[in-house]
Design a protein that fits this description.
Elements (H helix, E strand, L loop, with lengths): L18 E4 L19 E3 L4 E4 L17 E2 L2 E3 L4 E4 L7 H11 L5 E4 L1 E2 L5 H13 L3 E4 L4 E3 L2 H6 L4 E3 L4 E4 L18 H12 L4 H12 L5 E6 H5 L15 H4 L10
Parallel strand pairs: 3-13, 6-7, 7-9, 8-10, 9-11, 10-12
Antiparallel strand pairs: 1-2, 4-5, 5-6, 12-13
Helix pairs in contact: 1-2, 4-5
Amino acid sequence: MRSSIAILLLGTLFAASPLSAQEIQYESVEVGVDHFVFGGERSLSFDIAYIQTPATPSAPLVLPARGRGDYGPFRVIDDTHAALIDVTDAASPRQFAAMLRVHPGIAVIEMIECPGTEDDLANLRLGRMIRAHGIVTHVPQGGSVRSGGVELFLAGARRYVDPGAEFAVHSWLDEDGHEPRDFAQSAPENRRYIDYYRQMGMTQKEAEAFYAMTNSVPFASARWFDAAEMGRWVRLDDTYIAPSPLLAAALVVDSGSTLQ
């Protein structure tokens, strides 16, 4: 969704750093197609202006320990829960499919550290796969979902956000330096996102309003907001989901790095 390249060091995961411009290419995306067309990259920058900061500071959070349950940016917690803890890329749809083949009972994705994507087209494909499998997305306290990660949150068949979670959105910038406002609203460059939001359950007006909100922020800046603000833009589910009984045990320091 937003344009950003994100390659994170674990020691800086929860630094309050907005995302910068994404470079994107446009191609049709279909669920279940093995052929991948590479999309643009997104980046995380440390020198971007803040438009709005979360009202509730994020609590310290740590990553699930690495192990045999790693599938790219996904880490299996137990039979029904997986965590998303890194940037997605062109391989992520394939890795997601591989995870479900081995762990077909995965029903909830815990969105712990979701900085964006290196391939926007693959990210949209991944979002459609999440929705097609009826998987729930949950952002726990201290979770951070930014840039292209927001599309994946929206993909949840049900969407839950705990107090203390944070989101960040911004406008995209293509490889030629164009922004959304440089294209007609009905142009493919803009319609791609409206269509995706519609597929994720928004009405036409809701999709257009949400897209306009994200694009109101310059590509070199970011708008940060909390669970309450997200709930004003998209439908969130109210019923509490009990966390996996293994989640507390799985959320251990990875290589000595704690998310702050």
